[in-house]
Amino acid sequence: MKNNNYEVRKNFPKNFYWGGAVAANQCEGAYLEDGKQMSTADIKARGFFGGIKRDAEYYPTHKAIDFYHSYVEDLKLLGDAGFNIFRTSINWTRIYPTGEEDMPNESGLKFYDNMFKECIKNGMTVMVTISHYETPLALVEKYGGWYNRKYIDFYMKFVKTIVERYKGIVSYWLPFNEIGNVAVTPICWDAAAIHPDSENLLQKMYQAAHNQFVASALATKLIRETDPNALVGGMIAYKTVYPHTCNPVDVVACENEKRKEYFFSDVQVRGYYPSYIWKFFNDNNITIEMERGDEEIIRCHTLDFISFSYYRSRVASSEYVEPGEIDMNTIEGISNPYLPKTNWGWSIDPDGLMLALMDLYDRYQKPLFVSENGLGTIDKVEADGSINDDYRIEYMKLHIQAMKRAVEQGVDLFGYTMWGPIDIVSNGTGQMSKRYGIIYVDLDDDGNGTGKRIKKKSYDWYRKVIQSNGDNLD
Q: Which residues act catalytically here (predicted)?
């Protein structure tokens, strides 16, 4: 058999999407303005993983970078950088402040009307994450977390309102952000409004996951009925996993960890619970409460594409690991001696992104979209006002090269949105000093500063990358 009929792709497709991604609660601020009420993000005080408190002195999301009032100028900066796509979320509590209102808040809808118009004016396609770590706090106080099935109806009311409002405006919808994090401690608070100190935590996590699977499938059905031209994608948090050693028991442990990640995309893409998950449920005394019709809903409304966040890889082991191989100062756990780390202890692993793309495409044969990737680190403003973030340029360059290698391997990749193109509040730590952007925002960790926007060196670099469709990485 000759291979003359197949030409290996050397470049990104001509219609490739280049842009950036943010979350409403991390950038908008104005947390009680124009009818908005509190969300779960609004009681996360500054500190590691937010510090869920109701009486803290400072909540970073309350002010954030004030994108609510500065979006016109901010989106123009992104448009001038050549962005042809912008991913954001719609803050649930701007539309339904408590989640239980019969009618939506028109002021909130008008804000997104205007904001999306600016995106399109600046040449950017709109991608929206429907639920991005911001559940109405009033629902949590009354009904608990997403393990309560009542959330499906509240969510679908929200979905129906925004999908009908933004038909023909939003081209890509993501029902949930990093849906797999519903089963990760302590991020389950963000993903499913489950307090990490809850009793029967694992049971609640996976029941919440089921309810979100049903909600996602119903949202997919509604979007297709309302706007047949829009596409619906999953959004998972992907971390490439390596075995600690070549000992087969470590390889088995690695594969088991991979399955925990794959579970969420398996259900949403294939349309059914994989056989391997039932042993995990049995071993951990987890019972999923399903209603009649749930399995059919999940089976009939699978996703058009898969998007995912990729920041780092990790190491899995089934046996005792020497204390010197555990880094207690970071979230990595077992250290990978072959990889450098960021100031916040995240491994820097571009090859892991290439492997993620290859693994996901080989498994599902669905178009892929890298919806989050970036370097969170400290930036210094020089005396002349410049910000020389060569380290960010190098990070992005290596990861874009990794994406290109995956494309050469036949992966159907159609877009890349770097995380936080304009500096925003870190969800994990509540800090401004953990900066991802190509645009600097003059605010410190206490919210002090002018709020002035300053282009970093990486801004011009990324613009050239976009202009060349990823060919010019110098």
A: 372 (nucleophile)
Q: Are 139 and 158 in contact (CB under 8 A)?
A: no
According to the model, what pLDDT value does residue 331 have? 59
- pLDDT score for 319: 76
What is the signed CA dihedral for 175, 180, 182, 186, rounded to 10 degrees?
-130
206, 115, 80, 139: which is closest to 464 by C-alpha?
80
CA separation for the pair 314, 349 (Å, rounded): 10
| Residues sharing a CB contact under 8 Å with residue 6, sequence separation 6 or more, in sequence order | none
Catalytic site positions: 372
Q: CA end-to-end span of the chain, whole Å? A: 40
- Reported as a single tens digit per residue, the pLDDT across 170-215 is 999 999 999 999 999 999 999 999 999 999 999 999 999 999 999 9
Give the number of other CB atoms < 10 A from CB of residue 337.
6
Neighbours of 222 (CB within 10 A): 18
Q: Give the contacts of 429 (CB within 8 A, at least 6 positions apart).
A: 46, 47, 48, 49, 50, 344
Dump strand ranges (E) for 325-468: 326-327, 333-334, 368-372, 413-419, 439-441, 453-455
User: What is this structure's pTM?
Assistant: 0.96
Instruction: Identify the residue whose tokens are 């539309």.
Output: 95
Helix (H, G, I), strand (E, B) or coil at 312: coil
pLDDT computed for residue 1 by the predictor: 45
- Quickly count: other Cβ atoms within 10 Å of residue 271's Cβ: 18
Residue with tokens 């996993």: 241
Helices 201-226, 248-270: axis angle to 10 degrees equals 40
- Strand 240-243 and strand 313-316: the pairing is parallel
Cis peptide before 60 (omega within 30 of 0): no
Q: Give the tens place of pLDDT for each residue, 357-403.
A: 999 999 999 999 999 999 999 999 999 999 999 999 999 999 999 99
Domain at 17-467, CATH homologous superfamily: Glycosidases (3.20.20.80)
